[in-house]
Design goal:
The chain has 14 helices and 18 strands. Helix 12 packs antiparallel against helix 13. The protein starts with 42 loop residues before the first helix and ends with a helix.
């Protein structure tokens, strides 16, 4: 079947080019004289030659609406052969007339009464060409001594598809604006001519109250002058580039609301206007304040921390340090900024691990490190971490805690516990031999003093040796006992003589 979608406009041309679609009119133009176009002198030489040269698809109908001629463009357009269409008995043409009653009713009036058919739009399923949208024009002419209808066809599929696409796009765009997360208003002559639902929600006002109101009435008093200047500048420049700034709008329910405004020049209802997109940035402001507070708190923690903290860049160069760190490395206080953290350490393994943190190979390193700091042998507990922001290495931070006194106290406590355990064990050896007790005592003394070797000698009244107990370490660092003075690496006799006769 067919579908009508365009209008008729009066014209004297045989073929009409359309650029837009409208609702079809029921009227046909006034009849033209049959003699106004005539090929009666020699129809074979003139008419067919002229029609054949035209690019438009053309067919000629007799008063009974039989097809009596069509040019090559017509057959190519509908992908059909002359034998399939010429004559009143062909099924193709019969079906075309049957399924297009309104069209052929109008063509009958064209042929018999001389009316003009102008821009008649039709969507029809042609057997070989498929479903196509065409624009049809017809007028009466004299051919071979009688009045016939000259009918032209023009494909408008692309035009129709384009117009439908534009309509669909405009509908989608309107939906996006109306249901978007940003308030949108169109300002014309300083008045709001359009507003979407979101702007109504932001201001707590109805669309009826907003449309026609001065747009500056919805801007906080302190921002009105600035917003007015930007509006006039955007309007006068007629520049489509967006202008972005921040301001406060007035809400009837929530007071003032901070927004980010994007102003763009547009043409609205044929006049110059400005479209304002207003994005609620209350959450953004809260996040910014929270970030400022966090940075402030971090700065306080950094400066007042009881442990040393440094920040270094991707090359390991110190960019910032707190006071505790400066006190720990007081000898470097004047040169610490720009100092490489690797140069704080001499141990190759420690330097290698920290270098891996700086390069991002590992994220963290933590250990107790022995350093000579300010001419003192110190033990520092160090922690290094790389700093990665948005997937990019941005250097890192190092934490230094002087644990020298704590380690010394821990060692002293362990030593006292070992001494107590030794005394308790020695007290339980009352039934053991003197030799076993002396061997135990010697090994305990070496252990408590962290010695590698030691000896225990019993001396008679005449200063001669009674018993000799030697404590040595083997290749694996394990203690072994010996009674042979020759195993001891030092001259014990001379040492004892000095002690006895001192």
């Amino acid at each position: 079947m067919y579908k009508i979608y365009s209008s008729m406009e009066k014209t004297g041309n045989i073929s009409v080019k359309k650029t837009s679609s409208k609702v079809v009119s029921d009227e046909i133009s006034e009849p033209a004289s049959c003699s106004s176009v005539s090929f009666s002198d020699d129809p074979g030489n003139y008419f067919e030659a002229i029609v054949a040269s035209l690019k438009d698809a053309i067919m000629v109908l007799d008063p009974d609406l039989n097809l009596i001629y069509a040019n090559d463009s017509f057959y190519k357009m509908f992908k059909i052969k002359p034998a399939e269409l010429l004559g009143n008995d062909t099924d193709t043409f019969v079906d075309f007339k049957k399924n297009s009653p309104e069209l052929f009713d109008r063509l009958s009036r064209v042929c018999k009464k001389g009316f003009l058919l102008e821009d008649f739009g039709l969507t029809y399923h042609f057997i070989n060409a498929g479903t196509r949208s065409v624009l049809i024009n017809g007028r009466q002419i004299r051919y071979d001594g009688s009045c016939v209808a000259l009918v032209t066809f023009e494909y408008i599929d692309e035009l129709k598809t384009s117009e439908e696409g534009i309509t669909r796009y405009e509908g989608q765009y309107s939906t996006l604006i109306e249901k978007g997360n940003e308030g949108v208003i169109v300002v014309l002559d300083n008045e709001i001519r359009y507003t979407n639902k979101k702007f109504c929600e932001l201001t707590g006002s109805s669309k009826d109250n907003i449309i026609g109101s001065p747009f500056l009435d919805h801007i906080s008093l302190e921002y009105r002058r600035m917003v007015s200047k930007k509006y006039n500048k955007c309007l006068s420049s007629k520049n489509n580039d967006s202008n972005i700034y921040e301001a406060n709008i007035v809400s009837l329910t929530e007071g003032e609301i901070p927004v980010e405004v994007t102003a763009s020049y547009i043409e609205y209802e044929g006049q110059s206007a400005v479209m304002l997109n207003l994005n609620d940035i209350r959450e953004k402001r809260k996040a910014e304040k929270a970030l400022v507070d966090t940075e402030k708190n971090f700065r306080i923690i950094f400066e007042k921390s009881p442990i040393g903290i440094v920040r270094f860049d991707r090359k390991g160069i110190i960019t910032n340090s707190n006071e505790v760190f400066n006190e720990i490395f007081d000898h470097l206080r004047n040169v610490i900024a720009g100092y490489n953290v690797l140069d704080l350490f001499s141990d190759k393994d420690v330097r290698s691990d920290i270098s891996d943190v700086i390069s991002g190979k590992i994220r963290n390193y933590e250990d107790d490190v022995h350093l000579i700091v300010n001419d003192n042998n110190s033990i520092l507990h160090v922690t290094f971490s790389s700093l990665i922001i948005d997937g990019s290495l941005q250097g890192g931070m190092g934490i230094f805690e002087d644990v020298t006194l704590w380690k010394m106290g821990e060692r002293s406590l362990q030593l006292n516990e070992s001494r107590l355990e030794t005394l308790l064990e020695l007290n339980q050896m009352s039934d053991e031999s003197i030799e076993d007790i002396l061997n135990f005592t010697l090994e305990a003394a070496a252990t408590l003093t962290q010695s590698n070797i030691g000896y225990l000698v019993s001396v008679r009244e005449d200063n001669s040796f009674d018993m000799v107990f030697l404590l040595l370490t083997d290749e694996k660092g394990q203690y072994k006992l010996s009674k042979d003075l020759g195993d001891y690496p030092f001259d014990i006799s001379s040492r004892l003589t000095l002690i006895i006769y001192a």
